[in-house]
Amino acid sequence: MKQSTHSAEHATTGGDPAPGPDGAASDADRRPPERDDLADRLEAHRTELTGYCYRMLGSAFEAEDAVQETMVRAWRGHHRFEGRASLRSWLYRIATNVCLDLLKGSSRRARPMDLASPASLDTPIGTGLPETTWIGPVPDERVLARAGDPADTALARESVRLAFVSALQRLAPRQRAVLILREVLSWSASEVAELLDSSVASVNSALQRARATLAATGDDPAAPPARPLDAAQRDLLKRYVDAFERFDMAALTAVLHEDCTLSMPPYALWLRGRADVVGWMLGPGCGCRGSHLVPLSANGTPAFAQYRADGTPWALQVVELADGHVTALHAFLDAERLFSLFGVPLRYPG
C-alpha cells in the first residue's frame, strides 16, 4: 500500500537533506525555522502527522495528543534543528519517538471481531470494556489531506480503514512504524533506518516480518485501494438511510449483505449475518426506532452521526460497503465524546 508519487525525506537532523522535485532539498524545507514562522510551518504538517500517529496508535484522541506533544517538542527544540534534514523528516522522527513511548507496556487496540467469535441473539450484551480496548473512528479531515494526487489520496484512505488499522496493531511497535513508513508513506529503507537509528538490513527484516503477519490475517498492504463511491454505492447509502430512519426491516434486509456484521464498542459482543443483525434491531436494538442519521466521513468510509428519536446522541456509525450491499456496521456508542471529535451538535439539528 504505497503512496508512490511522494518520496519521504531523511528522518534525522544528521542526514542528507531530502530531494525535492529537482533532486535537491528545497531551501524552505531545509533551512532552520525562524521563530516567527515556526508555528505556521509546524502546523502545515499536522494532518499528515495525525494520520501517521493514528495508524500507529489506533485512537484519534491519542493521535491528537501525540501530535500536540510532537509540536511542543519541536517548538522547544527548534534551536537544535540545523537544516541538514527537512523539517518534515525531523517532525516524523519526533512523532515516531512519541508514539513508541506511548506504546511501551500498552496492550494492542482491536475491534470486537478481533477478540471473540460472533455472538447469538440470546447472548447478553455484557459490560462495556475500557476505551483503551478498542480501535476508535477518526474524522477523514483530521488525517487525510484535502488535495493531492488522486491515487495517493485513495491509498491514504485505504490505510486508515478500521480493518487495516486494527491489523497494524498486531505488529510490534517498531515493525508497525517500519511498515507504515515503507508501505504507506513510501520512505526508502535507508531513510527509515536513519529515523529508527537502525540498519537497512534490520529495517528490511522488520518489513518482511510485518508483511508476513498481515498476510496471515488477510490484510495485504499491497492490495489495491478501494475506489471512491460510485453512483450505485451512493444510491445504496440513500436506501440504507431511508430504511434505517423509517425502521423498515424489510428494506434494511434488502441492503444488508448476507454476512453483514454489527459491532457496538465498548461492548465486546458482535453479530454476523443479516438475519441476526435485523433480529437485534427488532429486539435489544429496538431503541434505534425513530433514529435520525447525519452523514459524515470516517476512516475513509461513509459514516453517520446517529441520534435517538428525541434528538439526543446515540452512536457514531461507520458503514462499510462491498458487492452492492452494506457489509459492516460499526456503531461506536461513546456518542457524546465522538460527536465532539467529529464536530457535530449534541442535539439533532433537524
From TrEMBL:
Report the InterPro entries cross-referenced here: ECF_Sigma-70_Domain (IPR052704), NTF2-like_dom_sf (IPR032710), RNA_pol_sigma-70_dom (IPR014284), RNA_pol_sigma-G_actinobac (IPR014305), RNA_pol_sigma70_r2 (IPR007627), RNA_pol_sigma70_r4_t2 (IPR013249), RNA_pol_sigma_r2 (IPR013325), RNA_pol_sigma_r3/r4-like (IPR013324)
Give start and end of each SnoaL-like domain: 238-320
What keywords are assigned to this protein?
Sigma factor, Transcription, Transcription regulation
Record flagged with keyword Translocase = no
According to its UniProt record, what is one Pfam family this protein matches?
Answer: Sigma70_r2
Mind telling me which PANTHER family this protein's record contains? ECF RNA POLYMERASE SIGMA FACTOR SIGJ (PTHR30173:SF36), SIGMA 19 FACTOR (PTHR30173)
Record-linked NCBIfam families: PRK08241.1, sigma70-ECF, SigX5
Report quaternary structure and partners.
Interacts transiently with the RNA polymerase catalytic core formed by RpoA, RpoB, RpoC and RpoZ (2 alpha, 1 beta, 1 beta' and 1 omega subunit) to form the RNA polymerase holoenzyme that can initiate transcription.
Protein name according to UniProt: Sigma-70 family RNA polymerase sigma factor
Native source species? Streptomyces lunalinharesii
